[in-house]
């Protein structure tokens, strides 16, 4: 299983207001457009608004309302040991857009953002 990246599908509405896009998902989309080879490495899922994502974490079922989210493959050993990985029922994931971009850059050898 590859890493699983969840992004909010653009063009959503909140009631009668919109269409909108998620700024955090947009930043990650930008990295994917600069380095399209990442789409061959990471499985990208587009989630509809509202952001309710039932995810199967191993044998347990959890509901997260966080997008963007990167769910790390169970076989991946992150190259950057200082990542702010979160865990739920044995699954490891990132919820912060900057952390996700940093992980994709350091893990898969593409450029990272200048600070």
Total E-strand runs: 9
Portion in strands: 25-35%
Which radius of gyration do the C-alpha atoms yield? 14 Å
- Given as residue ranges, the uncertain stretches (5+ residues, pLDDT < 50) are 57-61
- What does the overall shape look like? globular
Quaternary arrangement of the chains shown? single chain
- The count of helical stretches stands at 2
Percent helix among the residues?
10-25%
Structural class: alpha+beta
Largest beta-sheet details: 5 strands, mixed
Strand order of the largest sheet: 4-1-7-9-8
Explain the layout of strands and helices.
Blueprint: E1 4-8, E2 12-14, E3 17-20, H1 23-34, E4 43-47, E5 53-57, E6 60-64, E7 69-71, E8 86-88, E9 91-94, H2 97-108
Structure description:
By secondary structure, the chain is α+β, with helices and mostly antiparallel strands. The chain is built from 2 helices and 9 strands. The strands form 3 sheets. Strands 4-1-7-9-8 form a 5-stranded mixed beta sheet. Strands 2-3 form a two-stranded antiparallel ribbon. A two-stranded antiparallel ribbon has the order 5-6. The radius of gyration is 14 Å and the shape is globular. It starts with a strand and ends in a 7-residue tail after the last helix. The relative contact order is 0.22. About 4% of the residues have low confidence.
């Amino acid at each position: 299983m590859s890493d699983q990246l969840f992004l909010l599908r653009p063009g959503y509405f909140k009631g009668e207001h919109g269409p909108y896009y998620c700024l955090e998902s947009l930043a990650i989309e930008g990295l994917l457009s600069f380095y399209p080879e990442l789409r061959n490495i990471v499985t990208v899922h587009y989630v509809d608004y509202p952001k309710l994502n039932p995810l199967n974490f191993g044998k347990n079922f959890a509901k997260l309302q966080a997008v963007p989210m990167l769910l790390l493959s169970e076989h991946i050993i992150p190259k950057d040991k200082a990542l702010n990985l979160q865990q739920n029922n044995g699954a490891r994931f990132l919820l912060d857009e900057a952390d996700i971009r940093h992980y994709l850059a350091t893990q898969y050898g593409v450029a990272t953002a200048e600070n």
